[in-house]
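Reminder to self: keep the SMILES exactly as supplied, no canonicalising. Ligand is guanosine-5'-triphosphate.
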Amino acid sequence: LHNSSSQNEDCCIQKFNIAILGASGVGKSRLARTQYLNRLFFGTIEDNKELSIRENDDSRRSDPELQAKFMIEILDNNIIEQNLNEVHGVIIAYSISDYESFLEVEKFFKEIKGVYQKEVPIIVVATKSDLESSKRMVSTKDGEILANRLGCLFMEVSAKKNKGVNEAFTELVQLIEKNMIEQEEVQRFRAKLV
Ligand SMILES: Nc1nc2c(ncn2[C@@H]2O[C@H](COP(=O)(O)OP(=O)(O)OP(=O)(O)O)[C@@H](O)[C@H]2O)c(=O)[nH]1
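Structure tokens returned for the bound complex:
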């Protein structure tokens, strides 16, 4: 965490671990790297101003308020069991140019549901949206339908063009935050019953 904020602010920064799962070659590492370089959730608000003058990418839509509140660590090794208790949110990725990878989304989804005891926010991310239409094997509509059926948010992104990447991580962080508040409320409610 690059930091120029005060000690007091540091103590309020929450750390979330995000796992990126998906078939080989869908662009998990590049997605993680792009987001890391965007520095949303890692840097300071000053860094954010610097980013705001970069053109041709969406990092200028970074939210300084979120950035000051959260830090994320991204795991992209597909090892679900090993990171069982440490993962707060999951991205299941497939590539729009790889139909097989699309078919694997549900397999990953079921695996997560089988492994995690508690509710963990999951979003489905279609990668490589910059590719020309002749390379596209999965339509946006099909991606939306699948995500909808699984009850997940859906986004199409391009790590290469840095399009939609910040938005995807921001949506997930917001879901994680909401999920945590809900879990705390459930626990408080249960404690009252005892
Ligand atoms: N056009 C395009 N290519 C991309 C994009 N993201 C990744 N790639 C390319 O896709 C290939 C695979 O990317 P990786 O990030 O290594 O994919 P991965 O899912 O981590 O792969 P594994 O480590 O094998 O699981 C590389 O050649 C990347 O440059 C993108 O947004 N657009």
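Points to follow up:
The longest strand covers residues 14-22.
The pocket of guanosine-5'-triphosphate is lined by residues 22, 24-30, 76, 127-128, 130-131, 158-160 (CB under 6 Å).
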